[in-house]
Amino acid sequence: PGEQISENFIESPSIKKISFTGSTEIGKKIVNHRYWS
User: Fold this and answer.
1) Where is the Aldehyde dehydrogenase domain (predicted)?
2) Domain residues of the chain, as ranges?
3) Fewest Cβ atoms closer than 10 Å to its Cβ: which of 1, 7, 15, 22?
């Protein structure tokens, strides 16, 4: 699932920043908030 989600992140321009910082704690928090909250 993670790989498919990552691809969806790349598809969205506003998500590029998140995917770029996805390896950081902030990136993970943003992703979790937007997609799992």
Assistant:
1) 2-32
2) 2-36
3) 1
pTM: 0.26
Structure tokens at 7: 């691809």
The CA distance from 27 to 1, in Å, is 18
* Tokens read off for 33: 């908030």
Amino acid (1-letter code) at residue 6: S
pLDDT per position as a tens digit, 19-37 = 565 567 766 776 777 665 5
Length of the chain: 37
